[in-house]
Amino acid sequence: MSMLDKTAPHAQPFFLGTFASNCSGGMTVTKVPERWASSWDNNLRLAHLLDEAGIDFMLPIARWIGYGGETNFHGNVLETITWAAGLLALTRNITVFATTHTAANHPVVVAKQLATIDQISRGRIGLNIVAGWNKPEYEALGLTLPDDHVTRYGYAQEWFDIVQALWERTEAFVWDGTWFKLKNVLGDPRPSSRPPILNAAGSEEGRKFAVRNADFLFTPAIDLARSKDEIIALKEQARAAGSDVDVLTFAHVVCRPTEKEATDYLEHFGRANADWAAVDNLVRLQFAHAQSFPHDLLALIRDRMAAGHGGFPLTGTPEQVADGITALHAAGFRGSTLSFVDYVEEFPYFRDTVLPILEERGIRIAPAAMRSAA
C-alpha cells in the first residue's frame, strides 16, 4: 500500500520525499565535483537509506535532453518507469513515482506498465503526469509543442481518462475521442487500487486539470504568505469540483552543525561554482513555455535555481532546517520533496538530526510507530 494514502489512520502529518535523484546533478545546477551522479547504484543506495528511515516517496524528473552549460545539467537521466520498477522490487515500504509525459507515452502502454509495477511493489507505485512544456525535448522526440495550455491539457485529460478507464473497466471497449481512436482495448491486469496521482501545474488550465484528476498538486514555495493564500484557494476549488487535492512543494537542504558552515557551503556550490549558463537556459525555457513560477520574482528564482532548481531553501543547522519544514507545514503544504548536493552523503545527517526534531513537533511520526500502527 502506498505510504501516501491520505486517508490511512497511520498517514504522516507531513509527507517527505526526494526529487530528481534519477537526474545528473539532482536539483543542483553546480560544477562542484561532489555534485550528484545519477547512477543506478547511487539511486539504489539512496532508496535503501530512505526506506529504512521511513521517508514516504521518491519522485523523478522525466528528461530527454540536457540544459547545456559546462555540466549539461540533466543530460544524464534514468528513464522513470524502469527506474521505479527496479527500486520498488528492491525496497519494502517507500512509494516511488513514475513521471510520464503524455505526449511521449501511449496511455494503453502506461496503464499496463503501472499495473505491472503495482504487482511488483504491492501497491507502492505512483504516477506523476506531465502535460509538457519543454520545447527542445519535443523537438528531440520529433513532436510539436502546442502553444496553448488548453490544447496541452485537453490532450492530457483524454490521455488520463483512457488510463483510468483501463484501470477500472472489466470488459473491452471502444474509445472514439479527439486524440485517440481505440478498438477492443482492455486493461488486464489492473492495479490493486488507483495509484496516487501527482501533477505539477502553474497555469489556470493546469490547475483545473490537477483539481479534477490529481491527489497532489506540486508547486513551488517562493513566498509562503502567497503560498498560504494559493493553497486555500486551490482547496476550495477542489471542494467545489467534488475532489480532494493536497499540495506538495519541493525544497533543497543544506544542513550543517553551524549556520556558517551551511551558508558558506551554499555560497560555494550555489553561487561561486554554479553552472550559470545551464541556469539561464533552464530559466529561459521555464519562463518561455511553462507557468510553474511567478514571473514577478525572476531574480529570486534565478538565484534559487542554481542552488535547488527553484526549491524552497532549507539552509542552516538542524533546528533551522526543521523550522523551515515547520513553516511549510504551517503554510498548508501537505508535504515536500528534499534534495541535496549529494543525496547519499548528506541524507544521513538530516535523518539523524532533523527528523527527530520533526517527530518531537508532531510533524512526522517515527518509523517504528508507523509500522506498529499499520
From TrEMBL:
Q: Which GO terms describe its molecular function?
A: oxidoreductase activity, acting on paired donors, with incorporation or reduction of molecular oxygen
SUPFAM superfamilies named among the record's database cross-references: Bacterial luciferase-like
- Output the Pfam families linked to this UniProt entry: Bac_luciferase
InterPro entries found in the cross-reference section: Luciferase-like_dom (IPR011251), Luciferase-like_sf (IPR036661), SsuD_RutA_monooxygenase (IPR050172)
CDD domains annotated for this entry? Alkanesulfonate_monoxygenase
Where in this chain does the record put each Luciferase-like domain?
Answer: 17-334
What the entry lists under PANTHER family is as follows: ALKANESULFONATE MONOOXYGENASE, ALKANESULFONATE MONOOXYGENASE-RELATED
Q: Report what the protein is called.
A: LLM class flavin-dependent oxidoreductase
Q: Which organism is it from?
A: Mesorhizobium jarvisii
